[in-house]
């Protein structure tokens, strides 16, 4: 009886350490009804030049978040080996099956990649992706940037983010990198339930880690794409991989100090926001109304702010379900 | 052989002409696998007082457009009989099955209600709804307001809209009502392909008709909801049903003079907008880029403006398909 | 340009008029993704002997109603040519695709066969079936028996049924046949909306027509199967096709005089019946309660009898939707 | 590497131990495509007064069984704190996603809650529910009542049930509680395969446990709802939580002594029951016939009783599949 | 009330008559849930040079037949304007939505394009495609070649085909063109049920029409692709559009004189062919066996040849359904 | 806390060791929405006579591969106890749910049975099947034959196969059995990734194991069925279970020495094979072309042979996805 852990079946089709710029795939064998000897082909670009740190850059950890994929495709296209010192590993569509489907979780196994770490080499497709990053790509990196946005069901003020960590030195390095990103807002975050997150997997390996929320709704704007492209270059400059100076204005610091920041829908129905992202609210101000979806004339549920602050995130679709997060009120400074 | 047209099976559960305020339903019998003797129950509010015109007010003609439903629910809740002179018929969720599903077309028959007129009394569910409006509700009305937005796949600058009509007097009345709506923008439109539209059905009955596009993405904002609520009251005031004065600032006139306004995606892929709604472009300016969705490093398709103007509408989702409308450039004035 | 009506493509695989007993199919060519040159094969048994009337006997007009199919399969198996004078045409599974799927309407086109008459030879599968009965089988018949029950979403007291008809002689013949069926209850019915029904199609050809409702819930009982088998033999005896005497006790006459008989669910939720089939109610008695399906502790909706009588039909599933028929209160005598 | 078990993410929105009557939810965070920060909200009512035992009362362990939900909603609505001594925890829709879908197993993970114990805090939604009951709610309880019926595919005589247990004292307490329920029948049962059952999880914690089968078919009757409501009050009276005396007549004891009680379908087809629930059969009596579903005229399979007794359970739908349990013949007494 | 027929909404994105070689699309506007202002983009290549006939060449009339698409893509790529005299219109994927889905009928409306003629300008997507060919492209053509194969559920000997026509001159021209194709076999065919076929639509406009069956199974071989490419060039040479001489050996003439050629599956099950395509059978020879799919050890159904000849077509998948065409036995000569 | 492994719930309905020939099922209890007390019934035939080895014979390990099922049904029907010495256990449809669905993996759990070993007694349906073979049936056997073909997405030259094993004696016995099968080709194979395969599970128990690839495309031919039936008898003769002599000509030995044998699709599109199975290629020869599936006129991707040899396997469907195995070039001899 052999209880050893099987090897991860993913193989890159290009070398991960050869000087120059190579475009290829992470090939994940996937036998299924419509292809007995098929594969999931996750696009990959690796740029190597001279000596310097390694940056691992990922988008579409959730498949319906687009600022990261756009900024990473632009970087993969524009960046030349001679521009850098070190190595840049670009995976614009990390959860590729979810990206192709335009969905948060993978259509192949319904798994949320950002709750699947450390993954499993003999698990489902998403678990294999997580395991490969955990065991192969993250260990190669000094700096890891993972792009997020709100996806189809949430919308966020644009911010880069660092976590409170036990290792003060690592935390300081992460905060410096997040501030270098220079999004309009910067958030310090202590995850309540960090089990299975890519963030945690990366930080536990001692890496400098930056993540973002840059918009949402399953779309992007010219403005949010510019924030993503600029922040990405800023972080690479900050890391010494790219030459130049960090661009952009002063980022506003945000904090979500406690559970009162989160407002939950008490009923299902038609959602009417009363406050827009970035607007300021006082305690008790109406944040939203929920109207009956099956009749007319009934009084709406009114959801009021549990605390004062700035609206940092909100529910996106016009219909809402009981228990959905409806609004997040953050405080500035910190 | 009896070739007479069968009667429309829809029945209101409340009177359409009794003074006071009544909430009920348009009941459409619908036999199906999960309910042999079931029905589609379309919410309906009717408010009657004294003498005056009749306004027929509808939302969710497309089920994923939300400014109209929110404004109409607020009106149905807030408006009292003593506030008005005449009659207000409110159907906030006109294509109710589509509204409940959060989809443009009905999940019951895949029919687009706004291409289903004049409908059929023995057709599919959506065709029966069209036929009932065509034959029963529209004839009762003097003024018809039908709310639209971009839905899940388009985003618009907020505007009210009137059509170029053969009858100059009717056109003038419609333009006056659209301007009274007083959205940030007002558009004059000549539909190329008006076959099957509710707009056409209403206008052919000689009614004053106002429609809108107030946002999109399958969501709404506090701002767009305010525009809808205010515009609705403005139009009722303009019609003499509600007392008061029209509110709001100067509306910008927009025009879409020819087919060059419309820009179509030449390929499928990851969509990166380069211009945001309301921004000005010159001919040849890049409007968007489309990146390969299955590989990294390839050069994007760049879509350039065919004419100068203001970006009035754009594709919404982060992924785009070949043939999708990607951007509409309008001209101001008119 | 040829505007002639195409021929119906259905062909029986056995002769419809040869003496003896033959089992075969109505073969309906059906080209589709999983069979380019496939067919729908509707089981058919024809028994012919000597001279006498023709009876056309059908079950599974709705695919989830089972007393008819069971009684007809038993008859097709047990009945011998020498038992009869005339002809018996047995189609136990009239809407065969719906029967195989266990659904009311056909899974191939979502069409309710009992609203598809007179059908179309070049329409969908269900429309072709309707057209074949309309044009070929019904014209051959003197007596038509079509079995119904409540299906998966309704439950009925067991009754045979005749319609009020313009032709008094035809009506008397139908009533006599329905009474000969001798179910526990017998109902006289004036259909409000008879458009598209098989019943109407048969009656308009001047035939003697009997239909039934014998239970429901998508199941059957030993008792309801016995009622169906016995009633079927009784009607054939009554028609002079089979020798013997009509069996069974006195049938109770029922009437549904007006729309007040029908009680509709005012809201969706968890359905609690307060009265069982066959029980007597007084006006105002609670018929059912509807509890909230998304929260606990809320007061239920109570639905009260609009008139006195006997509970003749009721909603079946434990969940109910707004607009569903919840209960039918009939009156005895008539 | 941290191998500690993560905490269960479910949180009640109301206190579980505060005097009075509170309605709220068990909130289970559930991130998914249509709600990134969504939740499953399982309705919960807690009633606390003075000192006394704790009863944990659950329905919809299987989502298509309705007597329990109805009786528990009525109790949650009617019962007042002053009526009781102790605590009553009511979860009318235990597998809430299955209940909303009207299905036996959860539509979210296809898991049968009653085979998911002891559950897992980081498993699928149903596994999290099981884990929360196992670790939080059951330990609080002295008495546990879990309502079952046959669901959409089985139908049962109405009975309460206790298991043969290794601990004679616990067994006696369970039998006494089941008899106090006072359904028309009472069954003693030794589960063959108890792995994963809620029953086993509760009994292994030493609790007094009562379960039921009260009908089936995915519906309920006025009679079966009365049995459920009365039995529930009887058990609470028996436990000393509610004042009063146990109501109802003499319950018939049933036993299913061996595997010969179970009759299995030898082929797929159209199912014709020959015996109804509660009727007596002798060995060799026909229980049912199965007719061919794809042709007419063929001889049916006849399934005969393997032993004498009373028909206690049967297959429900009109179609049957090979291997389905077709009938259960029980013996009286015991 | 305007009862005029609306115009077909399809527009080519390239000119249909400009000298040179142009690649573009037939753009069919298609509003739907995932693209409000979307389109179906059907690939189109037009090559024009000098004077000469027009050939209209189509593949994927059924979306799972591949020899035509491959030969037409090769032609569109290889053929240069200077190679031809006249015009070649190439639509390699005629029912484009079906082609992309790999299905016989369109996934958008479940319509079989080859039964949808003459189509409708305001019908479903497939009906619009039919109407555009009927009204725009076919009238432009002198020669029409439409490629077919067996698709996923049938397999054929490779043959080109002409129909028996009322116009002897037209028939002779079609036969000459089919023989020029020079597939290994050539078939003369009288369609029994030609209603709605593209073949009929083309022939009724008096055009020279060639169709084929070149294999099947939803695949193609190197050999069948060569037959298609060579046949296509042969026909263009025959028509005088391309210079050169017709290639290939002697084609065997086949005939299907009557209904006895067709053998139908009498039961569903596991299909075992006993004869391969091109093999000769005598009357009574076993063509195939059908084994039970739900049990082992039962005797198979044996299907025997109703006439002698050569096996020209057969069922493809390993499972078969009752009523499926199992085998076609043709006769040689003619 | 009981951590012991639960027993496998599968039970045969016939004895596995009684002399004679018995047909029955492996009954696997399976509770689900459409049958609360249902089962998966896997057909099973056992033939026992005198003393001799036990052969375990399986087909439909993948549900869309048909040569094995046909040969095993013929054997189960034709073979008589007196023909053999020993025992033959026939399971023609090993992954029965996949076989009924015509799919590679099970529709019940999406699990590939041939990657599910050693299985789990409390896992999903496919895992239970694997566990039962692993723990009950394989241990009974001396010889195991498992039939494979290419299924719906691959096509193979017909070969029997043995693996390189650490135990030289076991390997020699397996090679001898594979050669005795006497398919047109015989292959020696070293699996790279044998984790979870039935092959490995059998070989690790020290059994003589033969597997095959006999065609593909989700169909079979008269020729491939003959190869399967003959090979099966040959192996039983070779094992001494059946009397007689091995039939058939000389089998060609094939080898796949390294990864260069495998050719992968570099892009999605329309697949055009340039070489057929069994044809010889030189390095650099074109194996296939891939044409754009969304436009016409673009140059195809050409896939060239990485080595010389014979085409032993190829992609089957007319459409291909990036990463699919497109062709396998084997070398003869070995």
Distance between the termini of chain A: 55 Å
- Rg over CA atoms of chain A: 21 Å
Q: Could you report the average pLDDT of chain A, rounded to the nearest whole number? A: 95
Poorly predicted runs of 5 or more residues of chain A: none
Number of helices of chain A: 6
CATH architectural category of the largest domain in chain A? 3-Layer(aba) Sandwich
CATH superfamily descriptor of the largest domain in chain A:
Zn peptidases
In terms of quaternary structure, what is this? homohexamer
Helix fraction bin of chain A:
10-25%
What can you see in these coordinates?
The structure is a homohexamer. The first copy, chain A, is α+β, with helices and mostly antiparallel strands. The first copy, chain A, has 2 domains: about 10-255, Zn peptidases (Aminopeptidase); about 255-330, Beta Barrel (OB fold (Dihydrolipoamide Acetyltransferase, E2P)), CATH 2.40.50.100. Helix content of chain A is about 20%, strand content about 30%. Chain A has 6 helices and 19 strands. In chain A, the strands form 2 sheets. Chain A has a 15-stranded mixed beta sheet that branches. Chain A has a 4-stranded antiparallel beta sheet with strand order 16-15-13-18, with no helix packed on it. In chain A, helix 1 links the parallel strand 4 (about 55-60) and strand 5. In chain A, helix 1 packs across helix 6 and helix 4 packs across helix 6 (about 220-240). The radius of gyration of chain A is 21 Å and the shape is globular. Chain A starts with 10 loop residues before the first strand and ends with a strand. The model of chain A has no long low-confidence stretch (mean pLDDT about 95). The interface between A and B is large, with 54 and 54 residues.
